[in-house]
Structure to design on (63 residues):
């Protein structure tokens, strides 16, 4: 759970920085957020969560 919150905070900060620097425009960022919320309610959401947990676990073994 702590890693998930940290990943969400990091991703949020990254999106804000990209929007403010002009590398990412506001409307495409909002479209990506809406797509993420839509994707979270589909049947593929558990597979995505498992993949993220697997990568995070692998990164945890490196450090």
């Amino acid at each position: 759970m702590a890693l998930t919150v940290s990943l969400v905070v990091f991703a949020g900060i990254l999106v804000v920085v990209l929007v403010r620097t002009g590398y990412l425009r506001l409307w495409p960022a909002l479209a990506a957020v809406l797509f993420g919320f839509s994707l979270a309610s589909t049947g593929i959401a558990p597979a995505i969560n498992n993949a993220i947990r697997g990568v995070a676990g692998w990164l945890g073994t490196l450090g």
